[in-house]
Amino acid sequence: MTDERPQTAYAEPIANVGVSAVLRQAIRHRSALIGAAIVAFFVLLALISPLIEPYPTRETTCAVFEPPSPQHWLGCDDGGVDVLSLVLRGGRISMIVGAVATMIAIGIGATVGVLSGYFGGWLDIVLMRITDYFLVVPQIVLMIVIAAVWGPSLSHVIVVIGILMWTSTARLVRSQVKSLRERIFIKRAESLGASHFRIILHHILPQVGPLLVANTVLAITVAIFNETALAFLGLSDPTAITWGTIMEHAFDRAAVSSGAWWAIVPAGVSVAILVMGFYMLGKSIEDALNPRLEVSYLSIHGWKMRPLAGRGPDAT
Amino acid sequence: MRSAPYVWKRVGFALLTVYVSLTFNFLLFRVLPGSPVSRISRVPNASSELKDALIAQFGLDKSLGEQYLLYLQQTLHGNLGISYANRQPVIDNLVVAFSNTIPMVMTGTVLALVIGIVLGVASAVRRGGYIDHLGTNIAVLFYAFPTQFLGMMILIFFAGTLPSAGMSDPFAIGGSGWENLVDRIRHMILPVLTLVLTLFAENVLIVRSAMLETLGEDYILTARAKGVSRRRLIRAHALPNALLPIVTLVAMSLGTIVTGAILIEVIFSWPGIGRTLYMAVLKRDYPMLQGGFLAITIVVIAFNLVADLIYFKLDPRITS
To answer: What is the interface pTM, i.e. ipTM, of the complex?
Structure first.
C-alpha cells in the first residue's frame, strides 16, 4: 500500500512468462493443489450429476421438510424433493452461470483493457471514463434494476452479471499493457513492421495471459455469489434449479421457521467450499505471477487485486 | 493551493457520474424496448387529477427530448414520481427507508472495521503464529459464505431468543423512551451481527497485509536499530501508516456493504432501503425502483468522493 507505482510493479522483468510457466510455478503451492482439487471435484460432480442423483429433481419422493435419514441423506425440501439431488443438479447450473458470466466479463474487460492500454489517446480516455463509471456505481443495485426491467430469466442473470463485472479486469489489463507498450521488444516488433493486430496477438496477449487466468478464476467466485444474491431476490428463473434458487425457495417457504436447516445448509456450504477452492487456486496463480503481490489486497467480493489502481498516478 | 485542482477533478467526476446515472435511469425505464411498462403516471387506484398532474409534470405526452429535460428538472427538485404501492411521493418513502437503514448499516460497518483492525494487526504482529493462522482462516471461511446463508443460519440459531423481524415490537406501544430504545437495539442485534460477519473478513485480510507490508519498511528497521521498544514500534511507527488503506478499504467495500444490506434487510424484514428496493421489484413498483436505484447510486458516489478526498488529505504523496 505504501508503493504508489502500480505500473512499475509489472514493468520489472518477469523471468518466467507465459501461461504454462506461471501455472507450473503456482502448482507448487499447497493451497493451489487443494483449490484445484476442490474445483475438479465440483466440476466432476456437475458433469456426472444426472447419473448419481438418487432421486428425480422434479418429483415428490418424501414428506415435506423430512429430516435427513438413511434414505434421504440430506432430507427433503418444502415440496418433498430430495435435497441431495437438488444440490447436485443445482451445482451444475450455478457453475455454468458462473463460468459463462465470467467469460463475458473477462472478454469485455480484456478487450477494453488491451485497446485502452495499447492505443491510448482519446480511445483510452473514453473507455476509462466508462470503466470509472461502472467501478463507482453499486453493481448489485444496477443488476437488480436491469433484471427487474428485463424480467426474471437465467440468461438475463448471466448477461447482467457478465456486463457489469468487467471493470477491475479492464483496469488491471490496461495498466499492464500500458507498461508493456513502452518495453523495448514491442518497439522492435513495431519498427520491424509488425501490424498492431500481430503485436497484440503475439507479443501483448501472451504476457497478459497469466494475469487473465488468475482474474478469471477469481471472477468466477464473484459471479457465483452474484447469482445466489440475484436468485435470492427472486430475479432468477424461479423454475431453474441453482444453489441460489434452492436457498431462495427454502427461505420463501418457511424453512427457517420450521427449523429445516437441511434445506439451506447443503447449498450454502457447497457455495462456500467451491468459492474457497477457486479463491485458493486464483490466489496461488496470482502469487506465482508476481512475488510482490505475496501480500496482496485480494478481495473475493470485489476481486480488486490492487486497490490503488486508478487512484495513484495511474489514474488519468 | 496545489490541492484545488485535484479536489475539483474528483468533485467534477462525481457530478458527471451522477449525471450519467440520471440519464441511464431515464433510458432504462422510458426509452429502451420493453420499458414503457414503467410509465410513471400509471399509479393504480389513483385519481385522474393525480394522473393528469404526473403527465403534466413529466410531459409524458411530449417528445422524448422534452421528457428528458422535464425529467432532469423534476428530479433535481426532488420529484421522483408517486409510488405505485402506497401512493406516496417516492422521495418521502426514500427518506424514511434511508433513516431506517443508516443506523443499522453504520453500526455494522464500524464494528466490522474495529474487529478487522484488531484481528488484522494481531495476526500481522504474530505472523505465522497461532493467532495469525486462526484469524486468517476464520476470516477466509466467513468470506466464502453468501450473506443470505449466514443470515438464515443466524435466524435459525437465535429464533426465539432475539427478535428476528422488523425494527421494533409492534405491540410495545406506550412504553417509556428507555424501553423503546432497548427494544430497538434488541431488534438490531441479528441484522448487525450478520453484516459484521459478512464484512469483517475482508477487513482482517486487508489490514493484515497492509500491516505486514509496513513492518517490512526500512524506517521500521531504523527504529528498531535505534532501540525503540516493540510495543512503541507497533503502535507509533507501523500502525498509523498501515491504517492509511482503511479509508480506501471503506470505499472499496461499499459495494459489498450495499449488497449485504439489501440481503440482510430482506431476511430480517428491516424496513430500510434494501427491502424497499426488494418490495419494489416484487410489486413491479417502477417509480420506487428507479428512485431507489438513483438514491443508492448517489449515496455510494458521495461516499466514494469523501473517501478519495480524505485519502488525498492524509497521504501527501498523491498529486493530481
So the answer is: 0.81
